[in-house]
Amino acid sequence: MRTFLFILLLTITYCNAKAQLPPMPPRPAVISSFAPFYHGVASGDPLADRVIIWTRVTPTVFGPISVNWQMATDTLFTHVVNSGTVTTDSSVDYTVKVDVTGLNQNTWYYYRFKSGSSYSIAGRTRTLPTGNADSLRFAVFSCSDFQTGYFNAYHDIAHRNDIDAIMHLGDWYYEYLAGGSDAGTDTSRFHPLTRDAYLLADYRLWQSQYRLDHDLMEMMQQYPMISIWDDHESANNSWNSGAQNHNSSTQGNWFTRKHAAQHAYFEWMPIRAVATGNDSIIHRNFKWGNLMNLIMLDTRLEGRDSSLGSLIPTSNAYMNNTSRKMIGPVQLTWLENQLSDTSVKWRIIGNQVMIAPLTMNILVTNEVLNGDQWDGYPAERKRVYDYIAQNNIKDVVFLSGDIHSSWANDLPHPDSTYVSSTGAGSIATEFIGSSITSSANVPASSGAIMAADPWFKYIDFTKRGYLLFDVNKTRAQGDYIHVSGISSTTFTSSDDAQWVNLDNERHLRIGTTPLGPNTGNPPLVSFYPSYVQNINNAGMVVFSCYPNPATNEITLQYYLNQAGKLNIGITDINGKSVYNGSTNELAVGVNNATLNISDLSTGIYFLTIGNGNNVFTQKIVKR
To answer: All domains of the chain, ordered by start, with CATH?
Structure first.
C-alpha cells in the first residue's frame, strides 16, 4: 500500500442571499436544479449579425457530450431563429461556445442550451446597431478578486436593466494562492489551491470557482460582455516575455504558463477569436452604427516590454528609450487605422492600464509612481498622442482599469502646456471606474496627486464599484457608481460623481446631473426559470478532475450539499486497491482536494470519491 498525501482546502462559492432570491444555505451553494449547467450561461462580443453564446456542462461521464442550443426572440422559445448541436469534451474543459450568426441588427435575443433532457437557464443578449445610432450605455469594471469580498457591484449591474452591454477591462480573476495577496478574512472565498495558479488545470479551477458565484452568473445572464485580460489572468505585472510573479525554477517556462492562461481564458470567456485557432490575440473593435467605434487594446501580453516597477525618475534612460513597446508596432498600426475611421463620431478605447501621467516628487525630483502603466512607456504613448493631434482626431475617450480606484482625467500632450481651468493642452480624456473588490494601493493622498498633476479631475481611493458610461451625439458621460461595502451581501449603491466629455472637446467638464433612467430594454430574464428541472441532488457534484493525464498530483473540485466525510479510493486496471482513505468532516459548499500520485507507477487507474449517497468514478492516467 503506497502512502498518499491528501490536502483539502475549502473554497466556497458565493450564496446570493438577497431578498428576491430563494433562501440558500448559510454557506454558499451550488444550485442543484441548474444541472448540468451549474456555471450558468453568458454571451459576448456582439456584432450586428452575430454574438457568442457560452456555457459549461458538468460531466457525469467523462467523454464527449452533445449539447443543443437555441436562439429565440422570446423567453418561451416559441420563435426560434437559429439552433444547432455542438460537441464538447475535456480538451476544452467541457465548455461550449457558439458564434450564432444570421441575426438582425439592434435586436434583443434569448438563448439556452440542452444536454439530455435538461435545459440551462436562459440568457438574454443583443446585437449591435448599424446606420444611425443615437446612444448607448455600458457598465465598465475591472479587478474582481474573489478572495477580497463579495461581488456586490455585479449584483447591482445585473438588476439595473438600463444598459446595452457590460465591459470588463481585465483582472477577471487573480492568480494568487488561497489567502494570498488581497485576501480578506472570509475563508469561504479563498482560492482553490495553496499555491499560485500556473498550470492550465489551475487556471481552469480558478475560472470555475469564479463562475459559480451567483452575482457573477446573474450579471452574465442578462447582458453581452466585451472583455480584455490584464495581468492577473496570468501573473502579476506580466509582459510579453515574463512576469514579476513568475518563478521559472518552480513554475516552469513563462511562455508555457502564459499560453495556459490564455487558453483557459478563451475556454471560459464569451470572446471571439480574432484569428481562427489563435488564443493569444484579443485586440479587436466593435462599431455601434455611426455613433461609436469601441477599440479594445492588449497593453499586457501581446507586445509589451518588461515593466520597471515603481518610483522611477522620469529621466530614467531605459524608460525613455524610444524602442520600448507597450502595444508594439502591429497593434499600434491597427490602432491608428481604427482612430482614423471617419464613419463614427466617437472613438472609445478599452485599455487595461491608466494612460494619464501620474508623477510626483516623493524620493527624487519628478518620479513615475507606477511604471506598469503607460507612464513606463512614454515614447509609445507619445506616438499615440501625436497621431491623434496630427490628424486632428477629436472625441477620443480612454476607458481604463487596473488601479482599483475611480479617476476622471484629461490627457495632456507632452509637447503642450496644460491649462487646468480650460483643459487646453489635453489631447483626449480618460475614465477609470473602481474595482469590483480589489483594494486600492494608495500612492499618495488624492489632494497631493491633484496638486502635482492638475489633469486629474476626480479621484476616489476608498470605494469599490463600476463606471456607468453613456454616449450620445453630444457627449460622453461617466457616472461613478459605488457600493457601500463588499464584506457583506447587504449593501447600497450610489452615484457619487459625474464627468462629461462634450462633442468636439478634448477635456472633461463636471456633469450637471446623474445619468437618468434608460428605458426600452425588455424585462430581465429569470434566474430561476420554471422550465429548469427541479433536480434533487443526492449530495455531491464533481465539477472537474485536473489534470488528466497527470504526473504528480490531481485536483478535484466538487460540491457538497450535506456536511460529512468523503471516502476516497484508487484501484489499478486489474481492480487491485492501491489507496483507501477518507477526508475530515467537510462543510456544505464547493471544495477542492489535491491528491499526490507521484508514487504510482505509470498506467491507468480508477479514482472513486463518494459520501455514501453519491459515488463519482473517474479513469485517471499516470504518466
So the answer is: 6-10+542-622 (2.60.40.3080), 33-125 (2.60.40.380), 128-510 (3.60.21.70)
